[in-house]
Amino acid sequence: MNNTTTSKRNSRIDILRTLSMFMIVTCHFIYHGIRNVTEGDTFPDLGFSASQTGEINFFLCQLLGYLTNIGPNLFIMITGYFLIKPRNFRYATQKALHLWLIIVFYSLTSLLAASLITNGKAFSYQELLDCIHPIWSRQYWFMSMYIPLLLLSPFLATGASALEKRDYQWLLLVLFILNFAISGIGYGAVFLGPVPLPFYIFVFLIGGYFQLYGCPVRYVKYGIYIYLFGYLALAAAVTIAQLHYLPSGTYPHIKGMANNNITLLMSVFVFAWVITLPKKETRLGQWAINISPYILAVYLIHDNPLIRPLLWNNLIRPRDYIQQPFLIPFCLATSIAVFVVCMGIEWLRATLSGFLSAHITKGHVK
User: Fold this and answer.
1) Is the pTM of this model over 0.70?
2) Which residues fall within 8 angstroms of residue 197, CB to CB, at 6 or more apart?
3) Do 209 and 164 meet the contact criterion of CB atoms below 8 Å apart?
4) What is the dihedral of CA 300, 347, 1, 82, to 10 degrees?
5) Whole-angstrom Cα distance, residue 31 to residue 42?
């Protein structure tokens, strides 16, 4: 990428995009690897309360779970930030189709890999059908929302650009009221389904608002501290309640948090704080821009429903380290490793795809 293109691009947003995907991987370490949210509301005794080390690890895991849970919201805000400038529908369909083909590729590749690892146990014709229709089958809940959002983005951008700033603010307020919910209180519990597209349209428009109108520094300069210390206090309170005030016969478990309550507010604080930082070119920013095309595949690879249990339950096995003082360093190190490996796989796929495409095009020209 040339320097002219780079200088026009806000590299802080690309750094935040990279960080948001790393947050998602780390969040999955906590909620798939340790808590295993796919088990539902069954909370076995994981041994956190068996020792002081386990109790400290519980607090740190709870804190890390909260801190990283903003990853999906940040990713959508970044999408809105970049796509709020009106583009034609053809651009959106090409982008969505390209992403859909990548999803199908990784779905089929994951099915093949899982079938080989499990000696064919992972394969079924239903799984094959689900891989070919990954959005319909909701193999990836995030993609089942993200691709429709891409298709809607030209219309959302056109509508947002037609609004006056005050009307845009009123729209965001109405959407906030309709989407916000905490502990069953609020309209979010009424309007949101298993794939919360209306909520992420709202988050998309928040990112778009910051692109169109910015944000005064005085309003958000303490946003990062609210995020850090707010979650620190919440994690401490949850830890005390979980370790010392649970009813008899129940065991401590890491609490999750929906994307449309406190998580939403913290996401806005962090995003607004980042975009108000002074602009300057750095090597980190250039690196983030260079790897930006490969970031989304990190999610597609490591959170494939066939790969997920093999990764967390068979390979990494976080529950084996609950009583170890290095649990959190292990979490961060393995999250980095998963991130880098998945990004390397996507780089290889993109490189081979580009090579084959160029070779085929060259053959047609001849």
Assistant:
1) yes
2) 145, 148, 149
3) no
4) 0
5) 13
